Protein backbone atom coordinates (compact mmCIF):
# COMPACT_ATOMS: atom_id res chain seq x y z
CA UNK A 1 0.00 0.00 0.00
CA UNK A 2 1.39 3.38 -0.96
CA UNK A 3 1.72 5.84 1.90
CA UNK A 4 -1.12 8.28 2.27
CA UNK A 5 -3.89 6.99 0.06
CA UNK A 6 -6.62 4.41 -0.21
CA UNK A 7 -5.95 0.68 0.07
CA UNK A 8 -4.99 0.02 -3.53
CA UNK A 9 -5.17 -3.76 -3.11
CA UNK A 10 -8.78 -3.65 -1.95
CA UNK A 11 -9.89 -1.21 -4.64
CA UNK A 12 -7.98 -3.07 -7.35
CA UNK A 13 -9.87 -6.22 -6.40
CA UNK A 14 -13.19 -4.37 -6.24
CA UNK A 15 -12.72 -2.20 -9.33
CA UNK A 16 -15.01 -4.12 -11.71
CA UNK A 17 -17.63 -4.63 -9.00
CA UNK A 18 -17.58 -0.97 -8.01
CA UNK A 19 -17.71 0.35 -11.56
CA UNK A 20 -20.64 -1.90 -12.43
CA UNK A 21 -22.64 -0.85 -9.38
CA UNK A 22 -21.94 2.86 -9.77
CA UNK A 23 -22.84 2.81 -13.44
CA UNK A 24 -26.04 0.87 -12.69
CA UNK A 25 -27.14 3.51 -10.17
CA UNK A 26 -26.91 1.22 -7.14
CA UNK A 27 -25.41 3.93 -4.91
CA UNK A 28 -28.51 6.01 -4.23
CA UNK A 29 -26.87 7.96 -1.42
CA UNK A 30 -24.41 9.19 -4.04
CA UNK A 31 -26.81 9.75 -6.93
CA UNK A 32 -29.70 11.31 -5.02
CA UNK A 33 -27.93 12.95 -2.11
CA UNK A 34 -24.17 13.56 -1.90
CA UNK A 35 -23.36 14.26 -5.57
CA UNK A 36 -26.18 16.76 -6.31
CA UNK A 37 -25.37 18.55 -3.05
CA UNK A 38 -21.64 18.60 -3.86
CA UNK A 39 -22.19 20.00 -7.35
CA UNK A 40 -24.24 22.80 -5.82
CA UNK A 41 -21.51 23.35 -3.23
CA UNK A 42 -18.65 23.79 -5.71
CA UNK A 43 -20.57 26.10 -8.04
CA UNK A 44 -19.38 27.04 -11.52
CA UNK A 45 -16.19 25.23 -12.58
CA UNK A 46 -16.49 25.95 -16.31
CA UNK A 47 -13.09 26.70 -17.83
CA UNK A 48 -11.17 25.73 -14.68
CA UNK A 49 -8.38 23.18 -14.54
CA UNK A 50 -9.50 20.69 -11.91
CA UNK A 51 -7.69 17.84 -10.15
CA UNK A 52 -10.08 15.09 -9.07
CA UNK A 53 -8.36 13.24 -6.22
CA UNK A 54 -9.50 9.69 -5.52
CA UNK A 55 -11.35 9.66 -8.84
CA UNK A 56 -11.99 5.90 -8.88
CA UNK A 57 -13.45 4.74 -12.19
CA UNK A 58 -14.08 8.36 -13.21
CA UNK A 59 -17.83 8.75 -12.63
CA UNK A 60 -17.56 12.16 -10.98
CA UNK A 61 -14.63 13.20 -13.18
CA UNK A 62 -16.89 12.82 -16.20
CA UNK A 63 -19.57 14.97 -14.61
CA UNK A 64 -17.02 17.68 -13.76
CA UNK A 65 -15.80 17.60 -17.37
CA UNK A 66 -19.37 17.83 -18.67
CA UNK A 67 -19.70 21.00 -16.61
CA UNK A 68 -16.86 22.53 -18.56
CA UNK A 69 -13.83 21.85 -16.38
CA UNK A 70 -10.52 20.61 -17.76
CA UNK A 71 -10.17 17.53 -15.56
CA UNK A 72 -7.22 15.46 -14.42
CA UNK A 73 -8.11 12.44 -12.28
CA UNK A 74 -5.81 10.56 -9.93
CA UNK A 75 -6.33 7.40 -7.92
CA UNK A 76 -4.13 4.89 -6.08
CA UNK A 77 -5.90 1.96 -7.74
CA UNK A 78 -4.38 1.01 -11.09
CA UNK A 79 -7.44 -1.06 -11.99
CA UNK A 80 -9.80 1.82 -11.28
CA UNK A 81 -7.71 4.15 -13.42
CA UNK A 82 -7.70 1.63 -16.28
CA UNK A 83 -11.51 1.52 -16.16
CA UNK A 84 -11.63 5.31 -16.18
CA UNK A 85 -9.28 5.46 -19.16
CA UNK A 86 -11.38 2.91 -21.03
CA UNK A 87 -14.48 5.02 -20.47
CA UNK A 88 -12.62 8.15 -21.61
CA UNK A 89 -11.91 6.45 -24.95
CA UNK A 90 -15.68 6.09 -25.38
CA UNK A 91 -16.85 9.47 -24.12
CA UNK A 92 -13.85 11.60 -25.23
CA UNK A 93 -14.27 14.32 -22.61
CA UNK A 94 -10.57 15.23 -22.58
CA UNK A 95 -9.91 13.82 -19.11
CA UNK A 96 -6.42 12.63 -18.20
CA UNK A 97 -6.04 9.90 -15.57
CA UNK A 98 -2.98 8.89 -13.56
CA UNK A 99 -2.26 6.24 -10.94
CA UNK A 100 -0.71 7.85 -7.88
CA UNK A 101 -1.13 8.41 -4.17
CA UNK A 102 -2.69 11.65 -2.99
CA UNK A 103 0.40 12.07 -0.82
CA UNK A 104 2.62 12.14 -3.93
CA UNK A 105 1.43 14.51 -6.64
CA UNK A 106 5.00 15.25 -7.75
CA UNK A 107 4.12 14.89 -11.44
CA UNK A 108 2.15 18.16 -11.11
CA UNK A 109 3.24 21.76 -10.57
CA UNK A 110 1.14 24.55 -9.06
CA UNK A 111 -1.17 24.38 -12.07
CA UNK A 112 -4.71 23.75 -10.85
CA UNK A 113 -7.51 26.23 -10.28
CA UNK A 114 -9.40 23.77 -8.12
CA UNK A 115 -8.79 20.49 -6.31
CA UNK A 116 -11.86 18.28 -5.87
CA UNK A 117 -12.18 15.13 -3.80
CA UNK A 118 -15.49 13.34 -3.37
CA UNK A 119 -15.93 10.70 -0.69
CA UNK A 120 -12.32 9.55 -0.76
CA UNK A 121 -10.19 11.14 1.97
CA UNK A 122 -11.82 9.08 4.73
CA UNK A 123 -10.75 5.90 2.88
CA UNK A 124 -7.05 6.14 3.59
CA UNK A 125 -4.25 7.46 5.79
CA UNK A 126 -2.07 10.47 5.06
CA UNK A 127 -4.67 13.24 5.26
CA UNK A 128 -2.07 15.76 6.44
CA UNK A 129 0.34 14.79 3.63
CA UNK A 130 -2.48 15.04 1.10
CA UNK A 131 -3.32 18.58 2.19
CA UNK A 132 0.30 19.65 1.73
CA UNK A 133 0.23 18.30 -1.81
CA UNK A 134 -3.15 19.89 -2.56
CA UNK A 135 -1.80 23.23 -1.38
CA UNK A 136 1.33 22.88 -3.52
CA UNK A 137 -0.43 22.01 -6.79
CA UNK A 138 -3.04 24.78 -6.48
CA UNK A 139 -2.49 28.16 -8.04
CA UNK A 140 -2.67 31.18 -5.72
CA UNK A 141 -6.32 31.82 -4.80
CA UNK A 142 -7.13 28.26 -5.89
CA UNK A 143 -9.97 26.34 -4.26
CA UNK A 144 -10.11 23.02 -2.46
CA UNK A 145 -13.48 21.28 -2.14
CA UNK A 146 -13.83 17.88 -0.53
CA UNK A 147 -16.53 15.63 0.89
CA UNK A 148 -16.22 12.83 3.45
CA UNK A 149 -18.59 10.76 5.54
CA UNK A 150 -19.56 12.91 8.50
CA UNK A 151 -17.03 12.16 11.27
CA UNK A 152 -19.42 13.21 14.06
CA UNK A 153 -22.32 11.02 13.00
CA UNK A 154 -20.65 8.02 11.34
CA UNK A 155 -17.72 7.22 13.67
CA UNK A 156 -16.47 3.68 14.37
CA UNK A 157 -19.10 1.51 15.99
CA UNK A 158 -22.14 3.72 15.40
CA UNK A 159 -25.45 1.87 15.59
CA UNK A 160 -28.76 2.71 13.92
CA UNK A 161 -31.84 1.93 16.01
CA UNK A 162 -34.94 0.87 14.10
CA UNK A 163 -38.65 0.92 14.80
CA UNK A 164 -40.96 -2.10 14.46
CA UNK A 165 -41.22 -1.42 10.73
CA UNK A 166 -37.46 -1.60 10.28
CA UNK A 167 -37.05 2.14 9.70
CA UNK A 168 -33.96 3.73 11.29
CA UNK A 169 -35.17 6.38 13.72
CA UNK A 170 -32.18 6.98 16.03
CA UNK A 171 -28.42 6.59 15.97
CA UNK A 172 -26.11 5.68 18.84
CA UNK A 173 -22.67 7.31 18.56
CA UNK A 174 -19.62 5.46 19.90
CA UNK A 175 -15.84 5.89 19.77
CA UNK A 176 -15.87 9.39 18.30
CA UNK A 177 -12.42 10.20 19.71
CA UNK A 178 -10.93 6.89 18.52
CA UNK A 179 -9.09 7.97 15.38
CA UNK A 180 -7.61 5.51 12.93
CA UNK A 181 -8.63 2.61 10.68
CA UNK A 182 -11.79 0.59 11.17
CA UNK A 183 -13.88 -1.81 9.11
CA UNK A 184 -16.86 -0.06 7.55
CA UNK A 185 -19.73 -1.93 5.88
CA UNK A 186 -22.36 -0.28 3.72
CA UNK A 187 -24.98 -1.49 1.30
CA UNK A 188 -25.51 -0.59 -2.32
CA UNK A 189 -29.19 -0.78 -3.17
CA UNK A 190 -31.68 0.92 -5.47
CA UNK A 191 -34.72 -0.34 -3.61
CA UNK A 192 -36.11 1.16 -0.42
CA UNK A 193 -36.55 -2.30 1.12
CA UNK A 194 -32.97 -3.21 0.18
CA UNK A 195 -34.11 -6.46 -1.40
CA UNK A 196 -31.43 -5.97 -4.06
CA UNK A 197 -28.71 -5.00 -1.56
CA UNK A 198 -25.06 -5.73 -2.21
CA UNK A 199 -22.78 -5.29 0.81
CA UNK A 200 -19.29 -3.81 0.70
CA UNK A 201 -16.81 -3.84 3.59
CA UNK A 202 -13.70 -1.69 3.40
CA UNK A 203 -11.26 0.06 5.70
CA UNK A 204 -12.16 3.61 6.65
CA UNK A 205 -9.96 6.05 8.58
CA UNK A 206 -11.85 7.96 11.21
CA UNK A 207 -10.78 11.50 12.11
CA UNK A 208 -12.45 13.93 14.46
CA UNK A 209 -13.87 17.12 13.00
CA UNK A 210 -11.12 19.12 14.72
CA UNK A 211 -8.50 16.99 12.95
CA UNK A 212 -10.01 17.70 9.55
CA UNK A 213 -10.12 21.45 10.22
CA UNK A 214 -6.88 21.97 12.13
CA UNK A 215 -4.70 20.12 9.60
CA UNK A 216 -6.33 22.17 6.86
CA UNK A 217 -5.29 25.38 8.61
CA UNK A 218 -1.83 23.99 9.40
CA UNK A 219 -1.27 23.30 5.70
CA UNK A 220 -1.83 27.01 4.98
CA UNK A 221 -5.40 26.97 3.71
CA UNK A 222 -8.03 29.53 4.60
CA UNK A 223 -11.29 27.88 5.58
CA UNK A 224 -14.21 29.31 3.58
CA UNK A 225 -17.21 27.12 4.36
CA UNK A 226 -18.31 23.90 6.01
CA UNK A 227 -21.59 22.41 4.92
CA UNK A 228 -23.60 19.47 6.28
CA UNK A 229 -26.03 18.78 3.43
CA UNK A 230 -29.40 17.15 3.90
CA UNK A 231 -31.17 15.08 1.25
CA UNK A 232 -33.98 16.89 -0.50
CA UNK A 233 -37.62 16.06 0.06
CA UNK A 234 -37.78 14.76 -3.50
CA UNK A 235 -34.82 12.45 -2.89
CA UNK A 236 -36.42 11.09 0.28
CA UNK A 237 -39.59 10.43 -1.64
CA UNK A 238 -37.66 8.61 -4.35
CA UNK A 239 -35.91 6.44 -1.77
CA UNK A 240 -37.04 6.57 1.88
CA UNK A 241 -33.70 5.13 3.00
CA UNK A 242 -32.38 8.68 2.74
CA UNK A 243 -34.71 9.91 5.48
CA UNK A 244 -32.24 8.92 8.18
CA UNK A 245 -29.87 11.63 6.90
CA UNK A 246 -32.68 14.18 6.98
CA UNK A 247 -34.39 13.20 10.23
CA UNK A 248 -31.54 11.78 12.37
CA UNK A 249 -28.18 13.20 11.27
CA UNK A 250 -26.47 14.26 8.01
CA UNK A 251 -24.30 11.61 6.42
CA UNK A 252 -21.71 13.89 4.82
CA UNK A 253 -19.38 16.76 5.60
CA UNK A 254 -18.37 19.21 2.85
CA UNK A 255 -15.36 21.52 3.18
CA UNK A 256 -14.30 24.50 1.05
CA UNK A 257 -10.91 26.11 1.58
CA UNK A 258 -8.68 28.39 -0.47
CA UNK A 259 -4.97 28.87 -1.00
CA UNK A 260 -4.19 32.53 -0.19
Low-confidence stretches: none
Helix- and strand-based class?
alpha/beta
What percent of residues adopt helix (DSSP H or I)? 25-40%
Q: For this structure, what is the CATH homologous superfamily?
A: Vaccinia Virus protein VP39
CATH class: Alpha Beta
Number of domains: 1
Helical segment count: 9
Radius of gyration: 18 Å
Characteristic key phrases:
two-stranded antiparallel sheet, 260 residues, Rossmann fold, globular, 32% helix, 11 strands, seven-stranded mixed sheet, single chain, alpha/beta
Which secondary structure elements does this structure contain, and how are they paired or packed?
Elements lengths: L7 H6 L1 H9 L4 H15 L6 E5 L5 H8 L3 E6 L2 H14 L4 E4 L12 E7 L8 H11 E12 L9 E4 L5 E5 L7 E9 L9 E9 L2 H10 L3 E6 L5 H6 L4 H5 L4 E7 L2
Parallel strand pairs: 1-2, 1-4, 2-3, 4-5
Antiparallel strand pairs: 5-11, 6-7, 8-9, 10-11
Amino acid sequence: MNKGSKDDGFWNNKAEFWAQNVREGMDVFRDLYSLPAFLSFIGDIHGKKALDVGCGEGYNSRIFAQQGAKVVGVDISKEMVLLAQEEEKKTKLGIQYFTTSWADLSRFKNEFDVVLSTMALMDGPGYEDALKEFYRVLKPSGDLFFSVTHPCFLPPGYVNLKDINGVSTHRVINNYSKEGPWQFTWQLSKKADKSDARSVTSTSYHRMLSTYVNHLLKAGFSLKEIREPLPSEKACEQNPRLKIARDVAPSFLFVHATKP
